[in-house]
Write a structure and sequence with these properties.
The chain is an alpha+beta fold and 161 residues long. The protein is 38% helix and 20% strand. A hairpin with a 3-residue loop joins strand 3 and strand 4. Helix 5 crosses helix 6. It is globular and about 35 Å long.
């Protein structure tokens, strides 16, 4: 995968992450450019048959509906059951042993920062990652406006910008 500029935001609440995904799509970002991952809320989702009511986790995700349908079964050792949509979901499903941190390396995020972001997911937060070449500042603005904290931009070489 060619290294690209990525923007990462951490959300405290799932609803915030859903709204951010919707806002990114309205701003012209494609499904293949946006990923969201977080711990699956067993109490909210029951047996996994219903993975959420927000459009980001339902049919509104477009091309990633197939990934979402299997997201309830995605379990990462040391983290537990996850809900994940977008390209990051495919990476996590294919390389579960590397965890979230390992998957983030493909997005140009340094391994040490990836481990910190993986810890946020373990703590119950939701991570949004946007591949945003040429639109990184706009992606950062959208994530911040939707309530993300720890919003960062990474160049393809892993440097924070």
């Amino acid at each position: 995968m060619m290294a690209k500029t990525s923007v990462v935001g951490v959300f405290k609440e799932r609803d915030q992450a859903e709204k951010a995904l919707e806002a990114l799509k309205r701003a012209g970002f494609n499904d293949r450019d946006i990923s969201v991952v977080g711990r699956r809320d067993e109490a909210r989702e029951g047996d996994g048959a219903r993975l959420g009511t927000g459009t980001a986790w339902g049919a509104g995700i477009g091309a990633t509906v197939g990934l979402l349908a299997t997201a309830g079964a995605l379990t990462i050792p040391g983290i537990g059951p996850l809900v994940a949509v977008g390209p990051l979901a495919a990476t996590l499903g294919g390389a579960a042993t590397g965890g979230v941190a390992g998957a983030l390396v493909d997005w140009g995020i340094p391994e040490n920062r990836g481990r910190e972001l993986e810890q946020r997911v373990k703590e119950g937060r939701y991570l949004a990652v946007v591949e945003a070449d040429g639109k990184a500042d706009r992606a950062r603005e959208i994530l911040q406006n939707q309530g993300a904290n720890e919003v960062e931009k990474f160049a393809g070489d892993g440097a924070r910008r």
